[in-house]
Design brief:
The protein has 6 helices and no strands. With about 100 residues, the protein is an all-alpha fold.
Length: about 100
């Protein structure tokens, strides 16, 4: 499944082009600190960790305990893992491959 056409427009294209120009983790911190709130960034990071834990077959209870995510957030991430654009699966696979190489 591809990306959601409702998301695509010139402004979003420009945002993603900008993100693709970031070269280091420090650059990511600097850019995202300016473009988003701490809460927004933390929520995105939390969702990625929830996805990683779901893929590892960790229970909702343990995920909520470790990440602080609500059951609604965990359920939403689970739906995306099962029926989404495979973005989580793609990036989790790449992160796993990167960690194996290191």
């Amino acid at each position: 499944m591809g990306s959601d056409e409702r998301l695509k427009d010139d402004l979003t294209d420009s945002l993603f082009e900008a993100i693709l120009l970031l070269e280091t983790k420090e650059e990511c911190y600097r850019f995202f600190q300016d473009i988003a709130t701490v809460a927004e960034i933390k929520a995105l990071a939390q969702r990625l960790e929830v996805a990683r834990m779901l893929e590892a077959d960790i229970t909702y209870t343990k995920i909520a305990e470790v990440t602080g995510a609500s059951s609604a957030t965990i359920s939403r991430v689970k739906r995306c893992l099962n029926y989404g654009a495979d973005g989580y699966k793609m990036i989790l696979k790449r992160l796993e491959e990167k960690h194996i190489e290191e």
